[in-house]
Amino acid sequence: MSALQAIVLGAVQGLTELLPVSSSAHLVLVPALLGWEEPPIPFAVAVHVGTALALCVYFRRDLGALVVGLLRWAFRRSASEEQARESRESARLVGLLLLATVPAAVIGPPLEDVVGSVIASPAAVGAFLLVTAAILFVSGRLSRGEAGRRAATWKDALGIGLAQAVALFPGVSRSGSTIGAGLALGLESATAVRFAFLMSIPVILGGGVLEGVRVARTALLPGELLNYLLGASVACACGWLSIVLVFGAVRRGKLGWYALYCALVGLAALTASLIKAYVL
Questions:
Q1: Range scoring the smallest mean pLDDT among 27-31, 196-200, 213-217
Q2: 144: pLDDT confidence band, cut at 50, 70 and 90?
Q3: What is the pTM of this model?
Q4: Which domain holds residue 208?
Q5: Calpha distance 197→60 (Å, rounded)
Q6: Number of folded domains that form the chain
Q7: What is the mean pLDDT of the chain?
Q8: Which of 2, 126, 202, 222 is least buried, going by the fewest C-beta atoms within 10 A?
Q9: What pLDDT does residue 132 have?
Q10: Quick one: CA dihedral 249, 255, 260, 266, positive or negative?
């Protein structure tokens, strides 16, 4: 892998992991379009960790408040009624975030072989991008914007968790499906985005750690390591930009533009696959 490939694919990962356009789809389609080989697993681990770092830095205050509030709640260390209320809310939100990860954890392992076969098919990725487009379009129509609820319930957590499980298929955007589910369930736009991004942190980090363990014994050349670090840094910077763009798009009710983009890319991938299969 060259430095140019590391920069391009790092930018693709950082932008598309958090924008509602499916990173898994783009990491299949972009190398295929440019005639590059599929990125090696260690590189995929590096750019996923870079994206997760962007989330952790952006939501550092939220994460810090959750940790402090949870510890106060667990050890009953609140000094005032206000602190006690904040601690209970932190514990409640952590519980909801954990609940939201259950569907993907339960459904994911049985679907691993199916998902693996889909990854190798640009046609299937294109079809699932059309699913993402439909999710974004419908959720945008159902969104209540600033008039939605500011607190999630256990039913919301399960619904958003099921949407994340659907995003196991490459082409279905994790951020698009989870944010869309939150909006469709009646959450206020900023609440839906915040919940979706917070719940994605352990998923992205967990996936990176699991893959990292699998390749921990892989010997890397100094040049390869440098390119992986370069890709991770680019993914982190682009991930930060993606978070800002998503908050702005949802707040202004502009998810339809991402739906149009997914539809166009999905149709292009399907058309190219059909031409390759039946014409060329």
A1: 213-217
A2: low
A3: 0.85
A4: 3-278
A5: 12
A6: 1
A7: 83
A8: 222
A9: 92
A10: positive
Write out the two tokens for 94: 């952590």
Distance CA 254, CA 20 (A): 12
Q: Return the sign of the alpha-carbon dihedral for residues 119, 268, 132, 13.
A: positive
Question: Which amino acid, 188?
Answer: E
The answer for residues whose C-beta is within 8 angstroms of residue 130's C-beta and 6 or more apart is 262, 263, 266, 267, 270
- Type of residue at 118: V
Tokens of 89: 């809310």
Q: Rounded to an integer, what distance in angstroms lies between the CA atom of residue 29 and that of residue 27?
A: 6
pLDDT in tens, 153-179: 889 999 999 998 888 888 888 899 999
| The token pair that represents 100 in the structure block | 């939201």
SS3 string of 254-280?
A: CHHHHHHHHHHHHHHHHHHHHHHHHCC
C-alpha pair distances (Å), 110 with each of 173, 178, 246: 20, 21, 31
Residue with tokens 């590189």: 43
The angle subtended at Cα 46 by Cα 44 and Cα 50, nearest 5°, is 115
